[in-house]
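One-letter codes give the sequence; the fold follows as tokens. An example follows:
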Amino acid sequence: MAGIIRAYLMYKGFGRAGKRKISNSRMVSRFFHFQMTADAEIDIGQQILQKLADKKRSIAWLAREIDRDRGNLSKTLKCNSIHSNLLYDISIALEEDFFALYSKKIEETLKNV
């Protein structure tokens, strides 16, 4: 597994062959972030936009609530993955546990292992 992680990250420009160096723990963290977004099949940005629509709130409102730039937040919500700290802030602002989507997917995946 570590060899796969190292190969992937070297391909992305990290490690001995790349210009950027990262620690093993950070390498594993980046790999699992990649794996989680690739395998989870959860478009978290779309889920957040749907919840905003349900609550009749705008991206501008959310940006003010979490003290972020509206333009950057809008770009972030077009992605299918999001940083956990930002997801936490959004969950609090919208009073919705978006982490539960991932927890449910993890449970389903572990049942199939």
